[in-house]
Design goal:
Blueprint lengths: L1 H30 L4 H4 L2 H8 L4 H10 L1 H10 L38 E8 L2 E6 L1
Antiparallel strand pairs: 1-2
Helix pairs in contact: 3-5, 4-5
C-alpha cells in the first residue's frame, strides 16, 4: 500500500509542477517588456532616430542589428552631427584623414575638420567636429 501511495504522490507532484510552470510562463509573458520599437514602421523609426544625439545613435547601433540596419540604410544623422547634407559637399573628404561620409556614420571623431558649411568669398568654410 505504501508503494502505491508514493507513485500517486509523485504523479500529483508532477501534475502540480507542470501546472505551476505553465502558469509561471504565462505570467512571465504578460510581464515581459513588449518589443514595440520593432513593430513600428521604418519611416517612424527613422524620424525618431533623427532626434537623437551621436552617442545615442552609436549605442543603438551596438544594441540591435535591426536598428543598425535602419541607421545605415537610411543614413540617419545625429542632431549634433556636422556632416553636410548639401549634395555639393557630398564627395568632400575630411581634410586630415581623408575620410568620406558614408550612410549611417555615427563616428565620434572630434578632431578632424568636416566638410561642409558654406562657400565664403575667399574659399570654403569648414566646421570642426
Amino acid at each position: 500500500a505504501e508503494g502505491t501511495a508514493d507513485t500517486s504522490l509523485c504523479r500529483l507532484y508532477r501534475h502540480v509542477s507542470h501546472d505551476f510552470l505553465e502558469i509561471r510562463f504565462k505570467i512571465q509573458r504578460l510581464l515581459e517588456p513588449r518589443q514595440y520599437m520593432l513593430l513600428l514602421p521604418e519611416h517612424v523609426l527613422v524620424k525618431i532616430f533623427s532626434f537623437l544625439p551621436t552617442r545615442a545613435l552609436a549605442a543603438l547601433k551596438c544594441t540591435c542589428h535591426h536598428f543598425k540596419g535602419i541607421i545605415e540604410a537610411f543614413g540617419v544623422r545625429a542632431t549634433d552631427s556636422r556632416w553636410s547634407r548639401d549634395p555639393l559637399y557630398r564627395d568632400d573628404p575630411c581634410k586630415q584623414c581623408r575620410k568620406r561620409y558614408e550612410k549611417g556614420d555615427v563616428s565620434l571623431c572630434r578632431w578632424h575638420p568636416k566638410p561642409y558649411h558654406h562657400d565664403l568669398p575667399y574659399g570654403r568654410s569648414y566646421w570642426m567636429c
